[in-house]
Write a structure and sequence with these properties.
The complex is a heterodimer of chains A (114) and B (113).
Chain A (H helix, E strand, L loop, with lengths): L3 E4 L2 E5 L4 E7 L7 E6 L6 E6 L5 E4 L2 E6 L4 E6 L8 E7 L10 E2 L3 E6 L1
Parallel strand pairs in A: 2-11
Antiparallel strand pairs in A: 1-3, 3-8, 4-5, 4-9, 6-7, 7-8, 9-10, 9-11
Chain B lengths: L4 E3 L2 E4 L5 E6 L6 E8 L3 E9 L2 E4 L8 E7 L2 E6 L8 E8 L7 E2 L3 E5 L1
Parallel strand pairs in B: 2-11
Antiparallel strand pairs in B: 1-3, 3-8, 4-5, 4-9, 5-6, 7-8, 9-10, 9-11
The chains are: A mainly beta (114), B mainly beta (113).
Chain lengths: 114, 113
């Protein structure tokens, strides 16, 4: 119930295309859903996050779509650029200890070719 | 602020040796997390602290692993004795509040030979 399942494991997209990464969770008590971006040799960094009171959040070319009934959320990267090539992790957490910790998905390696 | 600072960046040690990883969280952050990253298992939470108190250590693999946070600006993760299967990148992260953005350090790449 604590798991967050992420797919696909890897993704290859041409420059200008749309990258879509999906995550699913079981625990309905999760109330914070961030996406992290990690470049080689660096730590993960927050890209965008959503809470379950909204179904979509957009920041620039990055959009989170959230489907509470299906217990799924996804990251859409519009007009993908070579600089977006990185590993992306979805995560989820709850607001009450000891479960106020981020549970990460397994990651998606995105490669954007020019 | 310089962000979360981890040291060393790289560590190569022989099996059986003690290894100590260090972390300085962002000033004012009450939460500190230790994660381990491997290709096989992804990002695993090992332990986290709130106000220097360990809250959940259920992710610590075994008794060879221990973590301390003697004050708000310093934490250590110790492995004694180390084994080759401990080879991974270890990340420290901190956050101001629960359920909010966690800021990660650059990580320590540990290789046990």
């Amino acid at each position: 119930q604590q798991q967050v399942k992420q797919s696909p494991q890897s993704l290859i997209v041409q420059k200008g295309g749309i990258s879509i990464i999906n995550c699913a969770y079981e625990n309905t008590a999760f109330d914070y859903f961030p996406w992290y971006q990690q470049f080689p040799g660096k730590g993960p960094a927050l890209l965008i996050a959503i809470r379950p009171d909204v179904s979509e959040k957009k920041e620039g070319r990055f959009t989170i779509s959230f489907n509470k009934s299906a217990k799924q959320f996804s990251l859409h990267i519009m007009d993908s650029q070579p600089g977006d090539s990185a590993t992306y992790f979805c995560a989820a957490s709850m607001g009450t200890p000891p479960t106020d910790k981020l549970i990460f998905g397994t990651g998606t390696r995105l490669q954007v070719f020019p | 602020d310089a962000g979360v600072i981890q040291s060393p960046r790289h560590e190569v040690t022989e099996m059986g040796q003690e290894v100590t990883l260090r972390c300085k969280p962002i000033s004012g952050h009450d939460y500190l997390f230790w994660y381990r990253q491997t290709m096989m298992r992804g990002l695993e939470l090992l332990i986290y602290f709130n106000n220097n108190v360990p809250i959940d250590d259920s992710g610590m693999p075994e008794d060879r692993f221990s973590a301390k946070m003697p004050n708000a600006s310093f934490s250590t993760l110790k492995i004694q004795p180390s084994e080759p299967r401990d080879s991974a990148v270890y990340f420290c992260a901190s956050s101001l509040l629960p359920n909010t953005e966690a800021f990660f350090g650059q990580g320590t790449r540990l290789t046990v030979v």
